[in-house]
Design goal:
- The chain is α/β, with parallel strands linked by helices.
- It has 2 domains: 108 residues, Rossmann fold (3-Layer(aba) Sandwich), CATH 3.40.50.720; 178 residues, NAD(P)-binding Rossmann-like Domain (Rossmann fold).
- It has 9 helices and 12 strands.
- The strands form 2 sheets. Strands 8-7-6-9-10-11-12 form a 7-stranded parallel β-sheet.
- Helix 3 links the parallel strand 4 and strand 5.
């Protein structure tokens, strides 16, 4: 009897089916692009390959389910709904370099004052600006997993001093100073650019808040590549209005899509992107799925398997 794999993606499910079906002829694939399709697809599935937007509450309607592979780094939205005995894994390795380029790209753009340059061009305003450089600045990376490590390496490569924040000490050679989980305020005060790559857990919810923001250095910027829940958005809005921090690059939000009337859209010191720093390439997802499928069948640990008790 063939193993049934439900494949869920709201926009690219046909592309995934084209890649998967010829390669894994011994599997039976069922496609879904919306909630109704997901309900039908999940019913007989042993394996679920899903976009991060999969409705987690549907997992309880999958009595045969044994493994969920998420098509992205963020699996926290599903972790709380995974039934006992079901394994959960995510995609991170291929995302690290891409997300690092997003983070350091914006660091360089901020040093070169690109937001002001674009505004001056839009208003036909000739105004030479004194520019900064990233070299010699301190990059703070909160979360030193695969993505955070890639950010740290690229930051160091452009001459930045790197400090890190994580639960466990790091062996990364690029990290010159490490702050433990009880000293997030000290970490915030040690960097000119703070990049968030932490997982969303009860412990990290609103880790950026009214108490911590004033600890940031004058002129410091905050970049969030991870999860909107890490930031108390009301506190950040107030902080941006006061210049603490000087600015923020935000790719993730507590509510997505970001409501059209949200203050972030109009703030001159906030750069809003549409959850795109970790854009996923279907071909890379399929390669990751293939590796983990072999491990799943062999009863081995999965690559990037989630510890459901910790949530990451």
């Amino acid at each position: 009897m063939q193993t049934t794999v439900a494949v869920y993606h709201p926009a690219l499910v046909e592309r995934y089916m084209t890649l998967l079906a010829p390669r894994f002829a011994d599997l039976a694939f069922v496609a879904a692009a919306d909630r109704d399709g997901a309900v039908a697809a999940i019913r007989e599935a042993e394996i679920l390959l899903a976009h991060i937007s999969f409705p987690g509450h549907l997992l309880r309607h999958a009595p045969r389910l044994r493994w969920v592979q998420v098509m992205g780094a963020g699996a926290d939205a599903l972790a709380g709904d995974v039934p006992p005995g079901v394994r959960l894994s995510r995609l991170t390795g291929t995302l690290g370099p891409r997300m690092a380029e997003y983070a350091i790209g914006y660091v360089l753009a901020i040093c070169q004052r690109m937001p002001e340059v674009v505004r001056n061009q839009a208003s036909h305003r000739w105004l030479p600006l004194p520019l900064g450089v990233a070299r010699g600045k301190t990059l703070g990376v909160a979360g030193l997993g695969a993505v955070g490590a890639a950010v740290a390496r690229l930051g160091a490569a452009v001459g930045m001093r790197v400090v890190g924040y994580s639960r466990q000490p790091t062996a990364l050679a690029e990290v010159e100073a490490w702050f433990p989980s009880g000293d997030f305020g000290g970490f915030l005060g040690a960097a000119d650019f703070v990049v968030l790559t932490l997982p969303a857990t009860p412990q990290t919810r609103h880790i950026v808040n009214r108490e911590g923001l004033p600890r940031m250095r004058p002129g410091a910027w905050l970049l969030n590549l991870s999860r909107g829940a890490l930031i108390d958005e009301a506190a950040l809005i107030d902080g941006l209005r006061r210049g603490q921090p000087a600015g923020a690059v935000l790719d993730v939000f507590e509510t997505e899509p970001l409501p059209r009337d949200h203050p972030f859209w109009e703030m001159p010191n906030a750069i809003v992107t549409s959850h795109q720093s970790g854009a996923v390439v279907p071909e890379e997802v399929v390669e990751h799925f293939a590796e983990n499928l072999g491990r799943y069948r062999a009863g081995q640990p999965l690559v990037n398997e989630i510890d459901l008790e910790r949530g990451y």
